[in-house]
Amino acid sequence: MTNVLDTLNQEQRLAAEAVNGPVMVFAGAGTGKTKTLIARIIHMINDENINPRNILAITFTKKATAEMRERLSAHMEEGKASLVHISTIHSLCNRILRRNIEYLGYKRDFEIIDDEEIQKVLTDVYKKENIDRKLYSPKAMAKMIGDYKNGIRPLRGEEQKVYELYQGYLKENNMLDFDDLLIFTNKVLDIKEVLEYYQELFKYILVDEFQDTNIEQYEIIKKLASKYRNIFVVGDDDQSIYSFRGACVDNILSFSKRDFKDAKVFKLQENYRSNQSILNGANSLIKNNTIREPKELFTNIKGIQKPVVVHDAYYYEDEVRFVVNEIAHLVNHEKYTYSDIAILYRNNALSRNFELGLIESKIPYNLYGGFSYLKRKEIKDIISYFRFIIDDTKLVHFKRIIDRPSRGIGDKTIEKIESIMQETGTNVLGAIKVLYEANPSTKNKSLDEFRQIIEGLQESIEKMSLVSFFDELINKTGYLEMLKEEDTEEANRVNNLMEFKSILYKVEETFENQDLSQKDKIQTSLDEIILDQSYGDEDKKEGVTLSTIHSVKGLEFKVVFVVGLEEGIFPSIREEQDIEEERRVAYVAFTRAKERLYLTSSTRRLIYGRVVRNQKSRFMMEFLLSNDLQEMVKETQEEEKQKGEMKVGSKVNHTFFGYGMVIALDDKFAQILFEKDNSIRKITKDHPTISVVNE
Predict the structure, then answer these.
(1) 3-class SS at 541?
(2) pTM, to two decimals
(3) Cross-strand pairs, 177
(4) Which residue among the candidates 239, 269, 413, 533 is catalytic per the annotation?
(5) Which residue among 225, 267, 302, 677 is least packed, with the fewest CB closer than 10 Å?
(6) CA dihedral 268, 273, 276, 282 (to 10 degrees)
(7) d(CA 86, CA 74)
């Protein structure tokens, strides 16, 4: 078997072999950071004889976790890869809390809630406490709470009161939101015996995508690593684009300067994705940021001639038409497939026009990072059914499913059930029985029939496979019949529901040789399902990818169109203190391209119901002023003395707009980047107002 270290370049290998002590790896876009991290783990186990049980690798997506384990398995003895702890940070915290949360006054079978459920909890809190929704909507309050927990902004006045009521509700119902997983893990690691246990377990810690960590996550990592200090972090400060989620770029910049001053520092700068013209533009762009670790990407990839195309449309519809026509040309004449191509935008509001353009031209597409499978109403319903069958004290799930399908149960009846639960200390089903025996009305009879169905399902769940149980659940409850009546071809909700069987099948497969009850399998798996917000993104048909830039970070495409490159749209803000992150977003967008990169803009754009005129994005200008274009100018100018013809790279002078550089040509027109105002203008090549400058 080939030594995995032999597949690395020199800098990658030095980083992979630095096993002991703190290590910081700055890895530019497309430089093989994950490959280096995986090679390091293989080297640690195969060559350094480190126990795989003592290795913790933290990733930031479930997909990355699965890929890492698969790649490890290919390079080591059977079974060893499964002993390495590979996990997202939230899954790691969930495991720690399942074992230790009782120290904080919670029960181990706590439930993790997502964004939608947070809003439902707040709606309940508002109702119980008579809080005016006009003050803060549940959606707005949920964002404020999230921002507070991520250190983005403090709470003020009434917000603090609502926050305390919200946290009280969660504790009373044994619930945690995603941010609580981090905050509570930090608290539980302050307990000496808990911290010592995990420090001994995780003697070697590796963190991928370190630039995306927030303050709470970094505190957890530092605590775990503080004893043995064998911590390896890899990331790219130039790709830190999630500050709106609380990600802190200072974590990566201060790792070796403040927290681990003896850290070995490596820089991966050889790119294995893009051609040099694209990299030169990206380098030229990002060097305008002042808060960064200097890096200069280079590659040995031989690219096509003129891999960067700039298109400045007069109206946004012309921009759409250009992009759609160019995609058709690339597929029909340049041997690309639709899946090779992505249209990326900073603002979701731009997607609609490109969708319509692709539909009109019958070009298939996928809206990447769109509505998550797990957030679909029918999937939320079925998860609530499972949650309630497992634990019939869960009022929040009872409230969701009791009228799915409709049983004519209103808020007053639910309030009666809650009162009986509080008075008698019984669960929901027990309270329903008490209510029915006291008043066997038609409505209460419907409730009692629901109770009998759930009790029957509670008995049968352990007697059959989860896939078979799913069929029984949706048929006995009437949920499938209801969905068939409600469904439309466009919604496709019955098919979405049936896809849940695939999840259950994987659950059975995962726990095949483990002595767990069906309820335990579901409980454990629902945690992983809830924590995996990307489920379904990989199940895409052949088609062009339409996406915000944030959603495709980590992906790559042969051809990338970055559209809407105008001030006020991209960058989307005007405050200079935020411009560095906006520039990093542009850097991420441009470095997704492997072979061809298109930069497009529009002089006039209809957005949010009004037509606006924006200047061309400074990011387009910064990209176009890269070294290779400057060198081309010099070479072209030398030829112009002899030939006197206009070419891409020619320096020109316009009687009104001044000096500029030709960045694109066709038979009739020249596109020129003018120095005076950084504008791009399309002008007839032989117009009398323009002349080639011969030096």
Answers:
(1) coil
(2) 0.82
(3) 113
(4) 239
(5) 302
(6) -70
(7) 16
Supply the DSSP string of 114-162, one letter for each residue: -HHHHHHHHHHHHHHHT--TTTS-HHHHHHHHHHHHTTS----THHHHH
Residue 309, Cα to own-chain centre: how many angstroms?
A: 28
Looking at 159, 177, 179, 208, which residue is catalytic? 208
pLDDT digits (tens, 9 = 90+) for 115-153: 888 999 999 999 889 888 888 899 999 999 999 999 889
* Residue 616, strand partner residues: 566
Active site (annotated) includes residue 119: no
Catalytic: which of 13, 31, 33, 40?
Answer: 33
In angstroms, rounded to a whole number, what is the distance separating the alpha carbons of residues 26 and 619?
23
Q: Which of 11, 12, 13, 34 is catalytic?
A: 34
* Euclidean distance between CA atoms 275 and 282, whole angstroms: 11
Residues 228, 221: Cα–Cα separation, whole Å: 12
102 among known catalytic residues: no
Tell me the average pLDDT across 291-317. 89
In angstroms, the CA 328 to CA 55 distance is: 49
Structure tokens at 433: 């029985």
In angstroms, the CA 50 to CA 52 distance is 6
3-state SS class at 690 = strand
Residue 670 DSSP label: E
In this predicted structure, what is the pLDDT of residue 491? 57
- Bridge partners, residue 345, by sequence: 548
The Cα–Cα gap between 143 and 156 comes to 14
Structure tokens, 566? 């105008």
Lowest-confidence region among 64-73, 99-108, 170-179, 215-224? 64-73
CA distance 430 to 448: 10
* Candidates 400, 451, 592, 681; catalytic one: 592
pLDDT at 302: 85
pLDDT tens-digit readout, 444-477: 888 999 999 999 999 999 999 999 999 999 999 9
Is the confidence at residue 110, as pLDDT, over 70?
yes
Summarize the confidence of residues 372-398 as an average pLDDT.
88
Place of tokens 């990169």: 597
Tokens of 230: 């064998």
CA distance linking residue 452 with residue 358, whole number of Å: 51
DSSP secondary structure string for all residues of 214-247: BHHHHHHHHHHHTTT--EEEEE-GGG---GGGTB
**427 phi and psi, to 5 degrees?**
-85, -175
Average model confidence (pLDDT) across the chain: 88
Kindly give the residue spans of alpha helices, DSSP state H, lying in 304-410. 316-333, 351-360, 377-390, 395-401
Instruction: For residue 449, give the nearest of 407, 481, 484 by alpha carbon.
Output: 407
- Helix H or strand E segment including 421: helix 411-424
Phi, psi of 652 (to 5 degrees): -130, 165
Length of the chain as a residue count: 695
Q: Which pair of structure tokens corresponds to residue 519? A: 């309820």
Q: What is the pLDDT of residues 362-382, one digit of tens each?
A: 999 998 866 667 778 898 999
Say yes or no to pLDDT of 428 above 80: yes
Buried b (16+ CB within 10 A) or exposed e, 248-283: bbebbbebbeebbeebbbbbbbbbebbbbbbbbbbb
Cα Rg for the chain, rounded, in angstroms?
29
Catalytic residue among 209, 237, 582, 640: 209
33: annotated active-site residue? yes
> Does the annotation mark 123 as catalytic?
no
* DSSP conformation letters of 488-508: -TTT-HHHHHHHHHHHHHHHH
